[in-house]
Design a protein that fits this description.
8 helices, alpha/beta, Spore Coat Polysaccharide Biosynthesis Protein SpsA, Chain A, 223 residues
Length: 223
Amino acid sequence: MLRVKLNFAIFAREKFKCGITMNVSALVLAAGKSSRIPGRQKLLLPLGNKPVLAHAVDNLLQSCVSEVIVVVGHGAEEIRAALGARPVRFVFNSDYAQGLSTSIKAGLAALSNGTQGVLFALGDMPLVEARDLDVLIADFARVPHATIAVPVFHGRRGNPVLFDIRLRTEMFELFGDVGCKALLLRHVHEVLEVEMPNDHVLRDVDTLAAYNELCASMEVKRG
């Protein structure tokens, strides 16, 4: 396992000016039913002046990723409407009910030519800022033997996770309601852990309690 700690203060000053040369595509997996919050689509919950999903996508668009692809399924039209005219590409996964792996494959099939890395971004993680994403990408780009980059805060792994395009074939072999965790185990010696300066990469809106906590911490009115 590989570990990198970046001087975040220096990074923040230089900001790389998006001079990161790695061509990374971000896949936002937004096709699920949000079953842990019955009756509500967690991605569309209001957070400040826009939905949770819009925060996550805006952060991606402000980062150094080359493109943002949003995989939709359940409630596709509502998801599209929530993102308005943002410069993202939508991919409809007609098999979303068959599990997460189908959304992964749908997104992979839509990648632009020349993609070198695939960033699996979660639409329910609105706190992951552009500079957090750029830290992950920059470190991954300068460690040639790594095929996976995982953000870490105080020893805990978080999201989003960045995969080298060389693992694309293995990702296409996934089946059912599973993500890419199996690849982290299979390529354990090629996993780069990138220490982050905050807990943004650990905080999602997976439950109503988590949403309420996030609203309280951001001092915004709940919807």
